[in-house]
Amino acid sequence: MPPNTGLDVRPLTSGDRAAWELLWQAYLDFYDHALPSGVTDFTWARFGDPAEPMVALGAWADGVLVGICHHVLHRSTWAEGSYCYLEDLFTAPAARGTGVGRALIEATAAVAREAGAEKLYWQTHARNDTARALYDRVARHEGFLVYEYPLS
Ligand SMILES: CC(C)(COP(=O)(O)OP(=O)(O)OC[C@H]1O[C@@H](n2cnc3c(N)ncnc32)[C@H](O)[C@@H]1OP(=O)(O)O)[C@@H](O)C(=O)NCCC(=O)NCCS
Predict the structure, then answer these.
(1) Which atom of ligand 1 is nearest to the CA of 105?
(2) For a Cys staple, 118 with which of 39, 42, 48, 79, CB 3.0–4.6 Å?
(3) Could you give the dihedral angle defined by the CA atoms of residues 37, 124, 6 and 49, in that order, rounded to the nearest 10 degrees?
(4) Domain 8-138: what homologous superfamily?
(5) What is the pTM of this model?
(6) Which of the 8 DSSP states describes residue 15?
(7) How far is the CA of 133 from the centre of ligand 1 (A)?
(8) Is the dihedral of CA 38, 21, 126, 124 positive or negative?
(9) Along the 152 residues of the chain, how does pLDDT read in single tens digits?
(10) Domain map of the chain by residue range?
């Protein structure tokens, strides 16, 4: 598909919740993950709280929300500035391949830079070839693996 040159990427605001939730739910479905609705409420509230280091960006095409991207700024023992962890990225299936994912990553990088962050990073599944096709174009794979220790 040709690139969408008319994309509008900006932080989500309170009136965007219904449109965001459609894509958020589709993203959770993609991961086959059932999240309690209370967590979704909590997360949405955090996006709207300027004291929280969590930001949600949205990409609009012709007034329709076609992509979402969430990031978290956090401290690092390796830097005075913060690090930016891009936690979620999702493009509506009908809009894929038109540059929405790339635009959201670039917008996240701009927000992170503006906030004084020293690193922007994320993780994906080794078998998520579609996401990796995008990531290999815009970033470097540094070779690290992610482990999870069960806390409960
Ligand atoms: C991964 C995902 C976000 C990509 O979003 P997208 O909006 O389609 O990506 P873009 O259109 O910006 O693509 C950017 C680049 O990646 C390439 N790319 C994207 N999808 C591709 C595919 N299926 N095969 C090959 N290349 C692909 C594009 O060709 C483009 O390259 P270019 O800019 O040099 O032309 C989207 O497929 C998605 O939401 N997938 C389901 C959820 C998911 O996997 N999220 C990421 C979890 S870590």
Answers:
(1) 12
(2) 79
(3) 40
(4) Gcn5-related N-acetyltransferase (GNAT) (3.40.630.30)
(5) 0.96
(6) G
(7) 6
(8) negative
(9) 778 878 999 999 999 999 999 999 999 999 999 999 999 999 999 999 999 999 999 999 999 999 999 999 999 999 999 999 999 999 999 999 999 999 999 999 999 999 999 999 999 999 999 999 999 999 999 999 999 999 99
(10) 8-138
